[in-house]
Amino acid sequence: MRRLFPGFAGFLALAFAAPALAAVGDDGSEQQSWAIHGQATFVLQAHPAFHSAFEGPNSLDRRREVKETFDATVYAGFRPWGGAEIWVDPEIDQGFGLSNTLGVAGFPSGEAYKIGKAEPYAKLPRWFLRQTINLGGDSEKVEPDLLQLGGRQSASRLVLTLGKFSVVDVFDTNDQAHDPRSDFMNWTIIDAGTFDYAANAWGYTYGSAAELYAGPWVFRAGAFDLSDVPNSERLDPTFSQLEFDGEVEHRHSIGGQPGELKLTVYLNHGRMGRFEDAIRLSALSGQRADIAAVRQMRNRAGISFNFEQQLTKSVAMFIKGGITDGSIEPYEFSDVDRSIAAGATAKGTGWGRSDDTVGLAGVANAIVKVHQRFLNAGGLGILVGDGKLPHPGDEYIAEAYYDAALAKPVHLSLDAQVIANPAYNRDRGPVAVGGLRIHAQF
Hints:
Blueprint: H1 4-17, E1 22-24, E2 32-47, E3 65-78, E4 84-95, E5 117-142, E6 151-165, H2 187-190, E7 205-214, E8 217-225, E9 242-254, E10 257-273, H3 275-285, E11 295-310, E12 315-324, E13 338-348, E14 353-366, H4 369-376, E15 395-407, E16 410-420, E17 431-441
Helix pairs in contact: 3-4
């Protein structure tokens, strides 16, 4: 941590000077021609010792733990021609999730990747081209943002994105619960736990997406590269393993307050194993169930919904959930076959802190019987695997946070989570996880 805070201080100095790092069009129009944004996030999480009858290779450590993560990102975008944006986002990461990001299907930090390193390292998570084709209708103002140049666009439009980015940059978004740098932190609260979206171990992939905005409706479709093997650092270089996504969104108003409902489907086509095959092979060999030994080309599909509604000017709520094929191993995200999450957020206008936010949410994650049997036979999943599972149960998680604005670009958050039956194991836990987050953005 001593190495990180000097860099963080330098980032803060840049953040306060950042308004100069943008430009409007040469003709003085509202169209930004280029922009540079940045963010830095430090997260500290800890849990005390907890009850555990046993543990395995992918277990959350039953002893007291304290872990930290840090990342800093530069978002550089420019407009090469009308309606187009090119973004390149270099990033520096460092740190580890609790127990090396293992032991809980709904992992408590979206800032913890499946790859942890003690020393800071650089990567290029995003580089992409976005083309907006206006199709008519009212003109809408576009506010500058981390991955968005300011300007104007028509209400009806077609948006095409091509390059390297995250599937959840486009699909399954939610204004209340989607960004672990500023709102909730639990993996299965910020994203639908059953959405097994294509990604390398850091959450990014190569692909393309198309979005059609037509009145209150939005239709999305995309194709993305899967990892070379499930839960890998390396994407498939042959593009022979792919994910196909589709989404329908309807924007509405209830009582004069805006809301959205999204329905998302995915289909993964890649080398995956069936749990029943792994269990059968384990019984014959006398060894633990090994899903890698039974992989072959298969399809795995799932569906999820995502609803959010503004209740008052300062209070909003959300519900999200989904189901997926529990007979086949998850490919990229987490070990969840059924999930339902709900929560609410409130701005601090009622107590004179309009830039503060408080949030409360809960999620229930589950796996089907054959998935439970696989884990009980010693099988290991993406995040879970206690060596055995004689008393399975659904995983229940509650999360609350308070995000306080210290200055315009800097926020400090306190986060608390309680996890019952971590990794679907009633012989372990419950676990209390506390967190501190410092986030700066310009």
